[in-house]
TrEMBL record:
<keyword id="KW-0408">Iron</keyword>
<dbReference type="Pfam" id="PF00067">
    <property type="entry name" value="p450"/>
</dbReference>
<keyword id="KW-0560">Oxidoreductase</keyword>
<dbReference type="GO" id="GO:0004497">
    <property type="term" value="F:monooxygenase activity"/>
</dbReference>
<dbReference type="InterPro" id="IPR050121">
    <property type="entry name" value="Cytochrome_P450_monoxygenase"/>
</dbReference>
<keyword id="KW-0472">Membrane</keyword>
<keyword id="KW-0479">Metal-binding</keyword>
<keyword id="KW-0503">Monooxygenase</keyword>
<dbReference type="GO" id="GO:0020037">
    <property type="term" value="F:heme binding"/>
</dbReference>
<keyword id="KW-0349">Heme</keyword>
<dbReference type="InterPro" id="IPR002401">
    <property type="entry name" value="Cyt_P450_E_grp-I"/>
</dbReference>
<feature type="binding site" description="axial binding residue">
    <location>
        <position position="402"/>
    </location>
    <ligand>
        <name>heme</name>
    </ligand>
</feature>
<comment type="similarity">
    <text>Belongs to the cytochrome P450 family.</text>
</comment>
<dbReference type="InterPro" id="IPR017972">
    <property type="entry name" value="Cyt_P450_CS"/>
</dbReference>
<dbReference type="InterPro" id="IPR036396">
    <property type="entry name" value="Cyt_P450_sf"/>
</dbReference>
<keyword id="KW-1133">Transmembrane helix</keyword>
<dbReference type="InterPro" id="IPR001128">
    <property type="entry name" value="Cyt_P450"/>
</dbReference>
């Protein structure tokens, strides 16, 4: 007797009817997704037609940006005036108060951004500069975390010298694995399934939240006006039109985002720029000469016109972020009620659309010799009109672009100007005279994409300039 015959003989009519209904619904769903869904006409992986778990799997592996680049046979990006809004799936990144990263409502986001942008103005950056300069001799992952806790909360955890709090950086990276999967398949959060699937990541998130609550509690004990940090600034600043400020809950949510986004992405950019500079003797020599001829002493290296005049160093930074963006996967947006026309095709309301930053930056349709680290292209690009320029948006574009972009760029420029002025450095396995050799094709600095990039290396040797 076959299994089907056993089911028929032992099951009641109601069970059989229910089973048949489930099979019919499944067949209907598969046929609809394969042939009649609004996105059915677009090419792509077969499995991705039927389940968001395809994206969740690659988010878990950390290669979702690479897979999007491989699959990017047809793509376009909405302008910020298009009828789309922030994809609700990003709410997985903030379980309490919404912040500028997770808000779907455009009006609320615009009001919040107007307040926050005051904290990253030219005058505000000068206020934060002493905290950055005093820590600029610390490197990469720990440096970026120490910088963000310093400028956001005026607290020094000194994770390069003191190992006690290094677990926080590790906890951020580990917790992002689960969050990256939830952005691709938010249904996995049903009844806490995500915590069962990713227990280590969930525990890491709990450790980070515990640390953050402690940090916020300590910072809230201070008077509003006694600190020269972003937290104090947000306590004081008001919307210029409405006069409204931010609630303590809003400030806590925003500053928590600054710590995660600011430290993670900045450390990735520091590491990738170090990788590409030490992989190109030509670029290293030119960047070092530019810095060492621009500044007469290390005391001159600070925010301002001289640092901004290091055009080639900035070109190297832009090129590193083009080839290896800190967050390379799609930034999903939900189409609003009127639908949207993207690249000539109508997309109904309620569907998610996005464009992979990594794929856009590495497309040969957009960039000549797209896989090559060639900073000189940025010097030519600066002479182009906006309409002539190739697409480049490591900080996103439009009203949803990163509000902390000026701070991030200033931190990296200041750090590398100081490093190039004070040290000669190389990869650990290279000869001391590597910089005198001819350039060779270098490997990409490969990241794992878990909301933001996770990295290994580079391992460098430093020696003071003679």
């Amino acid at each position: 007797m076959t299994i089907l015959e056993m089911l028929v003989s032992n099951a009641g009519p109601a069970i059989l009817a229910g089973f048949a209904a489930c099979v019919c619904l499944l067949v209907y769903r598969v046929v609809y997704l394969a042939l009649y869904h609004p996105f059915a006409k677009y090419p792509g992986p077969v499995l991705a037609r039927f389940t968001n778990l395809y994206g969740a799997y690659h988010a878990w592996k950390g290669d979702i940006h690479l897979d999007m680049h491989r699959c990017h046979l047809k793509y376009d990006i909405y302008g910020h005036g298009a009828p789309v809004r922030k994809f609700p799936g990003y709410q997985a990144l903030s379980s309490h108060a919404a912040n500028t990263l997770t808000m779907s409502d455009k009006v609320q986001h615009a009001l919040r951004r107007r307040v926050l942008s005051q904290a990253f103005s030219e005058s505000s950056l000068r206020m934060l500069e002493p905290a950055i300069r005093s820590r600029v001799d610390r490197f990469f992952t720990d440096l970026a975390f120490d910088l963000m806790t310093a400028v956001t909360f005026d607290m020094d955890y000194d994770t390069i010298q003191e190992p006690r709090f290094r677990y926080v950086v590790e906890a951020i990276e580990a917790s992002n694995i689960r969050l990256g999967v939830l952005i691709q398949a938010s249904g996995l959060s049903f009844r806490g399934l995500d915590k069962l699937l990713f227990p280590d990541s969930a525990k890491a998130a709990a450790r980070f939240v515990k640390f953050l609550r402690r940090l916020l509690h300590e910072r809230l004990q201070r008077e509003k006006t006694d600190g020269r940090d972003i937290f104090s600034f947000l306590q004081r600043c008001k919307d210029p039109d409405t006069g409204n400020g931010l609630s303590p809950r809003d400030i806590s949510s925003e500053t928590a985002t600054f710590i995660v986004a600011g430290s993670d992405t900045t450390s990735t950019t520091l590491a990738s720029l170090a990788h590409y500079l030490t992989g190109s003797s030509r670029c290293y020599r030119r960047a070092a000469e530019e810095v060492r001829t621009t500044f007469a002493s290390v005391d001159e290296i600070h925010f301002g016109p001289k640092l901004n005049s290091c055009i080639f160093l900035r070109a190297c930074l832009d090129e590193a972020m083009r080839i290896t963006p800190p967050g390379g996967a799609s930034l999903w947006r939900e189409v609003e009620h009127q639908g949207a026309v993207i690249d000539g095709d109508f997309v109904p309301a309620g569907y998610e659309v996005g464009c992979s930053i990594y794929a856009m930056h590495r497309s040969p349709k957009n960039w000549e010799d797209a896989d090559r680290f060639f900073p000189e292209r940025w010097i030519e690009r600066s002479k182009m009109t906006v309409g002539q320029r190739q697409p480049y948006f490591p900080f996103n574009i439009g009203p949803r672009s990163c509000v902390g972009k000026p701070l991030a760029l200033a931190e990296v420029m200041l750090t590398f100007a100081r490093l190039l002025w004070e040290f000669d450095f190389r990869r650990a396995h290279d000869d001391e005279m590597w910089w005198a050799a001819d350039d060779v094709d270098q490997a990409e600095y490969v990241l794992k994409d878990h909301v933001t990039g996770q990295k290994e290396g580079p391992l460098l040797c430093f020696r003071p300039r003679i």
